[in-house]
């Protein structure tokens, strides 16, 4: 066995995270503070995530569009809470074409303001509703403590924006997209998430309600993986989005927005990765199967290519690694680091014996399989690996979620990581207390019914059961 | 017949162009000067262009990546000609996170500087070459005379960047990508182009050689549709891209870059559009066939859906327009404006007679076709329409390309539009004279062999035959 190429997770999880990103060649830091270069392997994962999510988003009836990155400051100032929330994170263009601009332009931190401005132009009648648009683009939020994929000054994402005739329609849309996100994360990323509403302290600036999908990383910290916001009439009032209803009455539309970003790649790494590198769910693995050609030999090469052709014929993303000038050890470590779900090893010995070696990345198990059946066996493993990763993620989250009723006990245990289920009063002040005393936050409300016990933080009567944890 | 909904091309071509973009709901101006909102129909065309081009680019071996939008000014200043060329067009971020930045950051006008900086890190050995990366992103070039799709301050594009062991490899790559672009434009956009080298006055800032695909719009003006640059050793020297060759010698790599943008959509409009709107080539039409359901009737609806299903089964992008509350006239004009290649009209009368009406967008011909065979007939027309549009584009360009040998005669005729073939000395000063006296530019060099006649502009001995015209 090759010796460890990564800092072990148990030794230093943040160092392990950096190591994986570097060694799997996923990304590296850009020249400007907090910026990121996404390298071919990382970007190929993102492209598969995009294609998958794009199909799901379009299936809800949303259409893709593009909006400008440069937003006049006056637009941002129209919705009071929104500008308060985003002002500290803005990057501002003050000069263009060699001259100082009359009005500075912000780089979009998110596009509600510019899109709701156009909604006001495009929405005139109830027949124009619902209107559902989605954007794949880059946004900028100034980041003082950047971390690749998790917090970068510029990141790639999709942001959806919709307008509806009624508040109830907006509620339904917000929930629908939360469901789309949850299913994508579970079915494609194999990440078990808890979906629920955010507490007021964690709400999107300008939203009536924010919903989230929360996942648990292997170091015990939570990660917000995607959010869906019911903006109610806030932006419709600020931007004047009005329509004539069937009775000829002028009414304000209700709007929503929802987004997921390259941050999910950070989650993917920290949920599935182990001390040998990344473990990619087959659904979003750029190569689902790598055929490692061990020897520079025509018969071996032919055998590898036949396996690749058979896999591709079965719709599997297969790749032959024929870099026989590089050592077997280096190459197998490389594909382990990159998280390729299945590896098939074929050399002169395998051709002679008629059996190839099949290696699963998820449990690192190896088996000898007849050459004639190895492509079929590999293809058959993919659904099993996808399911196994989701199951591990679910089991890990469940095993690291515990109910708590005593604050002091909670404060002692929270440092060990994991998620905590607790009763909460709903008082906004209590969120500040929680954060200051434990470094933890309410990740989401998991039950709208008042729980039996009193509030973990204040001891007041409780209104909700909430999930609490330290988070990225 | 509905009366004209667009300014006729012959009356005012720029007004016609604006009208088509507005009425076909392709795009509109953004809030900041020169910015653009791309609406669902325009963006769907762009997505099909992207997917098509992406396949072609990946087939050459290039891999997609993402690089940051924010580039330190010091990076741009490393290649002297590059910074001179782009400085007047830069947008500059001076503030981030509420503070003034120590070093201002430019919004990328193009990514050579940041990519070649990373090439210097990633390229160490001849084994690392060639390295071919492609980016789909947004860039900003400050635009004083913006025009939707043609000149916008922010635009969407792909930019490819490659590094090679030898200058000859870079030459070959530059030519290869020019060919990829030409074939995409002809095969998918159905736009006949002239591919050739740019004169020094039109070269990319920092390139040794720039190659271009030039198309002729229906108003007689040329449009540069895509460019491929051989950057030689210029950026490799500026950024220190060096590798060890097989003999252990340290050498500079040679680099290239190549790009195409949403500007091509402007070309698509102006090459194929007519007084009734857009005419989309089937290869990039979001709906290739629209089935117009004329009556609110179960049997008619059933018939329309069966036709749609049959078309989709044959791999055709089909769409049923069932908005029977909107008039037939309004809906047929709408799909004409949007340029849908084939329309099938099915109402109660058609169901009773067993014959639907089939309408081609390219020549606006109509025919009555048995209902049972109409899907097959529509599908069969698509390749024919694709070819017909390319042929018309080629014929128009050829008919409006004329040889000239006398400058005064040329100066008189150039106002009428079209392209001119002329002998040219190669003297840089002559390009300035040409521009100042006629408003025209050398679009590209079409023949490397010295022509028989003397230079059109200077009367000196000629070195090249060039294509000249006024351009967007």
TrEMBL record, chains A, B:
UniProt keyword terms in alphabetical order: Aminoacyl-tRNA synthetase, ATP-binding, Cytoplasm, Ligase, Nucleotide-binding, Protein biosynthesis
Signal sequence range: none
Report which superkingdom the organism of origin falls in.
Bacteria
The enzyme's E.C. designation: 6.1.1.15
Q: Which CDD domains match?
A: ProRS_core_arch_euk
A single GO CC term, please? Answer: aminoacyl-tRNA synthetase multienzyme complex
| Catalytic activity from the UniProt record | tRNA(Pro) + L-proline + ATP = L-prolyl-tRNA(Pro) + AMP + diphosphate
Gene3D superfamilies, A to Z: Anticodon-binding domain, Bira Bifunctional Protein, Domain 2, C-terminal domain of ProRS
Any single GO molecular-function term of the entry would be:
ATP binding
Q: Where is the Aminoacyl-transfer RNA synthetases class-II family profile domain?
A: 33-281
Record's HAMAP family? Pro_tRNA_synth_type3
**What family does this belong to?**
Belongs to the class-II aminoacyl-tRNA synthetase family. ProS type 3 subfamily.
- Copy the domain comment: Consists of three domains: the N-terminal catalytic domain, the anticodon-binding domain and the C-terminal extension.
Q: What is this protein called?
A: Proline--tRNA ligase
Q: Which gene is transcribed and translated to give this protein?
A: proS
């Amino acid at each position: 066995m090759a010796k460890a190429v990564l800092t072990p997770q148990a030794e230093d999880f943040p160092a392990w995270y950096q190591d994986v990103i570097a060694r799997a060649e996923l990304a590296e830091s850009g020249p400007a503070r907090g910026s990121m270069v996404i390298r071919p392997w990382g970007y190929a994962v993102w492209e598969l995530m995009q294609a998958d999510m794009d199909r799901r988003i379009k299936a809800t009836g949303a259409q893709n569009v593009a909006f400008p990155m440069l937003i006049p400051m006056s637009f941002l100032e129209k919705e009071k809470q929104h500008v308060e929330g985003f002002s500290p994170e803005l990057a501002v263009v003050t000069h263009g074409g060699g001259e100082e601009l009359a009005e500075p332009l912000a780089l979009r931190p998110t596009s509600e303001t510019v899109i709701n401005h156009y909604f006001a132009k495009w929405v005139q009648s109830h027949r124009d509703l619902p209107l559902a648009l989605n954007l794949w683009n880059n946004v900028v939020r100034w980041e003082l403590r950047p971390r690749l994929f998790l917090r970068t000054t510029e990141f790639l994402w999709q942001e959806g924006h919709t307008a509806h005739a009624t508040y109830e329609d907006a509620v339904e849309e917000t929930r629908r997209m939360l469901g789309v996100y949850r299913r994508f994360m579970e079915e494609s990323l194999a990440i078990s998430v808890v979906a629920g509403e955010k507490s007021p302290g964690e709400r999107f600036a300008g939203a009536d309600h924010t919903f989230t999908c929360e996942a648990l990383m292997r170091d015990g910290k939570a990660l917000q993986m995607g959010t869906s916001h019911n903006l109610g009439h806030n932006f419709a009032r600020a931007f004047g989005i009005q329509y004539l209803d069937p009775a000829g009455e002028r009414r304000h539309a209700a709007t929503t927005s929802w987004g997921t970003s390259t941050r999910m790649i950070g989650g993917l790494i920290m949920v599935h990765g182990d001390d040998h590198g990344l473990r990619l769910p087959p659904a979003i693995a750029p190569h689902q199967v790598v055929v490692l050609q061990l020897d520079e030999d025509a018969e071996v090469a032919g055998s590898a290519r036949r396996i690749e052709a058979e896999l591709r014929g079965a719709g599997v993303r297969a790749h032959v690694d024929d870099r026989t000038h590089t050592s077997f050890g280096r190459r197998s470590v490389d594909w382990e680091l990159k998280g390729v779900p299945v590896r098939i090893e074929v050399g002169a010995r395998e051709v002679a014996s008629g059996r190839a070696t099949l290696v699963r990345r998820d449990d690192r198990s190896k088996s000898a399989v007849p050459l004639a059946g190895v492509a079929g066996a590999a293809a058959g493993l993919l659904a099993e690996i996808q399911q196994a990763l989701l199951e591990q993620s679910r089991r890990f989250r469940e095993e690291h979620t515990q109910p708590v009723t005593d604050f002091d006990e909670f404060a002692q245990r929270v440092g060990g990581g994991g998620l905590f289920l607790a009763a909460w009063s709903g008082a906004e002040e209590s969120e500040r207390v929680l954060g200051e005393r434990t470094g933890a936050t309410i990740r989401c409300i998991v039950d709208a019914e008042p729980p039996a016990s009193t509030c973990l933080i204040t001891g007041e009567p409780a209104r909700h059961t909430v999930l609490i944890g330290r988070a990225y």
